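Figure 2 data, in text form.
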Amino acid sequence: MPAQLNGKPRVVVIIPSFNESGRIGEVVERIPKAVVDAVVVVDDHSTDTTAIEGLRAGAVVITNNDHKGVGAAIKAGYREGLREGGDILVVVAADLQHDPGEIPSLLEPILDGQAGYVTGNRLNNGPVRQGMPPDRYFGNLMLTFLTRLATGVRVRDSQCGFTAITRQALGKVNFHWLSDTWGLTNGLIAECKRNKIRVGIVPVSTHYGKRPSYIHLGDYVPCMLRVLGASFLRARASRHFDGKQLSIR
């Protein structure tokens, strides 16, 4: 079981962003300042005012010099979060899909010393009623099933981007192996299996707006198949992790 963090850990929120003007400012403003010490917006070479709105809302903003993908944006955010002195790094969507008010619940398993990496679970909380398109819901169920097969970790929503990880756990992760596009969360689960990092699962809500998805199946499906295949090989490199993880109901 992971060691409990001493004192009050420094919490840094990372928001990977691409063309999120009109939304990113509200996301930053809704971050609970009582538990979060800094906010980093990673602007993945947006063509709108995402960076300006993030700065005006009080976030640290870093901008990629070209459009590299959501995985690359999250990795850039992790690096900046570590430079900001973060003990716990939380990833939140830029499109208001995640409720920043649920960050304290996401931190709980880490603060209790029961997990090094925590992922949200949207799939048992009526996501279709909350606006998740039915095709995406069933796609997420299938990818979660395949991720469980590939990694041996009993995740419940492998595609959820609402996550938290400790500095210590992140230090064990091979950044170069993680996807620069889609599938970073699946890769992180495989890295947890490989490095014996306990995974926590916390129910979260989901809120879908009118912005069209940036996922294009012609690119997404081949990418996910590559990630899942690599995750299988990566996870099987560890023989001593039991695959169990904490579930917060």
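Caption note: Residues 239-249 have pLDDT under 50 and may be disordered.
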